[in-house]
Amino acid sequence: MTKDQIDIYHDKQESKDKTEHQRQMSQQLGKISRKQKIKVKLDKKKKIVTDQSKDSIKGTDDPSDPGCSSEKSQANIFGPNQQTEEIIEESVHQTTKLENEKETTENYSWEKTFRRRPGTRDMGKPYEDTIISNIILNLLNDHETQDFQISSNADNFGDFDDVVIETRTSRGFKTRAVQLKHSDRRRITLKQLARKTGDFSLIKYFNTTRKIQHKAHRFVLFTTHEFQPEKPKFKLEGENFFLEVVKVVVADESLRMSDKENCCYIFRIVEDEENVGKIQEYGAFFEQFCLYTDQERLETLRVSTVNKFMRMFGAKEEAFEKYFKIVSEWSLEDGIKDKLDKNRMQRTIALGILSPQIECLVFGQVTDKMRVLRDAIFSFDLTLVQKSGGEVVRQLWGDATDTIDLDELNKLRSTYGLSSNYINKLEDIDGKILAQLLWLMNKTPLIVNEHVNMSRAIRLCSDAKFILLGDGKRKIWMRYYTVFQSLLSLKLKPELYNKVTQNFTISLQGKATLTLVEAFGSNEDFLRHITLNNLLEMLDGPRLIDGDKETLPIPYIERSLSLNIIDIKYLNNVSNNTVIILNCEDHPEEVKRPSSKHSLTEIDDFLDSPNHRTLLVPIFVVSKNRCSQSEFDKVCSETLQPKTVHYFKFLSNKNLEWVRSRGDISDLHNYKLGGHSRNETEFWSFDFTKTINLVIGDPGMGKTELTKSLKNKCPCDYWTVIVTPQEVNLFFKQSKDRNYLNSFETFILDEKYHHLDRLDKAYFRMCVKQNRVFYVWDALDEILTKYLDSVSTLIVQLSDQGFTQWVTCRRHLKSFFEKKFRVLSVSINQFNEREQEDYLRTRLDNMSDDVEAAIDKVKSSFAFIKHVDILGIPLQIFMLTEIIRQNTEKYLKLLDNSFLLTDLYHYFIDTKFELFYQNKLSINVQEPNLKRLVDRDKKTLLAYCEKLALGAIFPEGADINNLDDVDNVFHDCASVGIITGLVNNTPQFLHASFAEYLVAVYFSKNFEIIPRDTFFDQKFNNVRFFFDMLLARNSPAHVAVLYRNCDVLKHYDDEMLRRKDRGGRSALHLVCSWGQRRSRLAVTKSKVPRNCSYFIFLLVKKIVFSESVTSEKFVIQDYDTLSGEIETRGYLDGVLHLMNKCDVFEPDGLLGMTPLWYSRISESLGVELELLKFQKLRLDQPYSEFDRINILYYSALFGYDDVVKVFSDEQLPTYGEVNFVTTDDNITLTSIYICTTCVRLLCLSLSLFCV
């Protein structure tokens, strides 16, 4: 049995015992004398008082303790009763405790309605309503009162009909009937109490109770009159027994109207000589009767009631007025009506407090997913939704009115005083009122905006459902409720959890959808981040994580990428200590061991057998399936001796496709086969497995668009992070140590993804933890040079952690990154002729009457450019079609003349300005007067754009803050559409080439500020190309050189070939600066011992020279391969033709440099060797010792033995050691020891070898 059941059992037993005891006493009273009767009476009183004392002492609680139940507080607030027999004879000023009436536990009629006695509307109604309002507050504050019912002017309680209070606790039921007497404050006398009639006649009230069929547990006369008894005892008129007046503290907490004490009186029979039966009736009456006096009058009572209400609920007085109005209107209702019960009053008060914050519902179509979510919401007491989800959550119960009963609706409307008008149709009812009615009908939760004191109102409705719109965070007061805050809340409700996780979906970066269970499983650390708002976002489709797909140009032509195809002959020349993994899933029968010295084994056997680990011969490991990254790493870890591991895919043509390597890859370059490519979609499907992928592309080839396409096509459960050059610069600027991994993840979240919400960031962290992140490093050629080594280190660190990465850059960093990452790069191919035609046809459709004729004209305009295909470069063909689309007739006509790349940029920017003035500023640029103003303004803005571009390309040499009013300047330039943003105080242009073009324009007008020390760096090749083309605008020979159309030079006359551009340079100066670049080799010095023998070793034949020398040695590291041509034959023919027509020793008018100096500063080695060979013994520029070693090395390597004659014996290296090294591991392929007597023979020998 529970504690409550035990208490009820004891209460029942005690009640039976008392009833039996009273029956036996009544039988004995008829047989004994008067004196004995009095003694028995006193004994009975003593027993009752003693029982009371025991009850009160047993298990008392501190009534001030907020955790103490209200009933216990009422039972013990007076303290232990010490009354004994002597108290009866003491004065009325003795305070005691009123005996607590026992609840009824059986056969209690808990009726919900009552009949209002007719004719009871009188002047005391406001007082009566205020009393009822106060009583309700007291009962709501009593935690032991499980339910209550209040009736007023009930026709079955006689004079005690003003207020009837019925309560139910865990121990049973009890009823209190109250008669109210409110008037000007007067004094009650004992004489008034003793009379047979009058407002305070005890005899009248005794007779009234005898007629009441529904017996109450207590009858209360409640008045504002004062009462100070003149004496302790008095007799009723016509009766012989005495009544003792006993003052008690408030006996019933529900009737405590104020903080006053000692205002309650009870009456006890002292003695009687006759009429024992009537004494028993009076005794039973007075045991149930009490008199409350000195109560507050209406004005004061109302104030205290309002204050109590505001104190209890933290509400404003307006909420009390709503509550009081409902009580008053209820009391006026005639006939049979509902009693005021606890549930009704709780909701009445709650609605009154919450009504300003209640949200309306939105009615409409409801989907299955909406039903699933609202079922989940209805299984919790409270649902927390951030305000941003308010609009959607209001739609969940869009069908709530489909099956509504208007009669029930009107009854609730009347019961809760929500509207005075009868509802004939739903369209006529206010939205807030309808939301409240549906909540009262338990059809929907109540959607409420969070505010400070709402918790007290919600606590009134323990079994109701609420949706709280606010910050979505759980509050302390919610700990007693079931709260739906995140998906984790549903874990304890498996059926609902499965429905939600299987029906609600996400899309990572706009890719294929994943159900929540597919995306996250049961990862509790992550489930807590999926809030109700996130689920609401999934109702109309998948919730986008990190936004939608990247937007690609229309049309987007998929790029073609070169493949790293290795000649099968390489397998016959594999060096020792090398492991080759061959993926032969498509052609397993064709893989054979190249020779007897090689070891061929299956990958499983290799990993299981320790014997292979120390073999010095090449090992071929065959895999019949793709070798995963983890398997590759395992092979690497199992091979202790080899320094190099290569993984190839075996192709049908018996060649190899390189996949990945560990260690040196330099030996692969000599076996690369060109001419192989693959569409990007096919490329991604295989190459997603590589940890580092290096993509090379010239300016405008669409590297950034390619990375966006990659992001859209990567696996749907992988997160792709595109890291921009500006973000790289910012990260390393902030980094304080070289352990970049942890700080990089933090940087990505704080800087790049600072705008994402908790769910997105949590998902990113989960992907990082599970290595499901692709890092795409876009345009690393645009980062600050000083960060190249640092970013390489970070990329390698991420690769070691197992992250797949893609790196894009321009061609000048190809060798650098290949060496750093030990990978073979792939290149983006230009659009082929078919792709160009498809693109032109799509873009120019509807722009010209004859699209095919327009396409032919565009193609023919650039046909003379053989080696630089403008239409094959995505950016340039886009720009060309864009300007034609804006003004088809104008630009097709312009194509009739020579159309240079700089013209394309000029017209494109000009078109942007026209659109800016016409569309954004609504200016007619064709109107003559306005055109002058527009041209002047455009000139000013272009000058600003040029300076902003200078700051973007040369950030260390130009400060955009020097511009006047830089913010407005930037805003105006950005409005044109050439500049897209400002990152770390660096302008971001539509494309880097626009900034490079504008810088070239600026330099073409300001020769004096050209930075000679960096102008010829490969990083600024595009700036220099635009600059040279701007200066060569009217010189066909210069243009031919820039487009590498050197074969047309022979068709120009001498005058045209010797013509100077705007910078005072001949075509020879220009051709010497644009040859194929071959970097200077690094040369280091170190001391060597005296009297040592040195030898020359060649790969084909050994030529031995012995020389005893002392001094230094020189070590050359060849970062390029030893293969490949130094320059194309056609270009060298053009150089030779110009050397014969121009003065090879003439300085230019721009920088004062000779052709030889141009070739040296631009590292055009082939041109430099031709010039040295042509100039014979004349050197117009001094060569350092290291430069001479470089020249001698390349002269020998490429057969320019005559170049040695240019240097005198004094200029040749007198002695030293030169090691030709091709890897970072210092593997020496050829060691050459040079002395004065053998230099020419050495060069001749090498030239013979190279031939």
TrEMBL record:
Q: Where is this region: Disordered?
A: 1-77
Basic residues: bias regions:
32-47
SUPFAM superfamilies recorded: P-loop containing nucleoside triphosphate hydrolases (SSF52540)
Classification via InterPro entries? P-loop_NTPase
Q: Where is the composition biased (Basic and acidic residues)?
A: 1-23, 48-61
Domain of life from the UniProt record: Eukaryota
Q: What is this protein's name? A: NACHT domain-containing protein
The uppermost taxa in this organism's lineage are: Eukaryota, Metazoa, Ecdysozoa, Arthropoda, Hexapoda
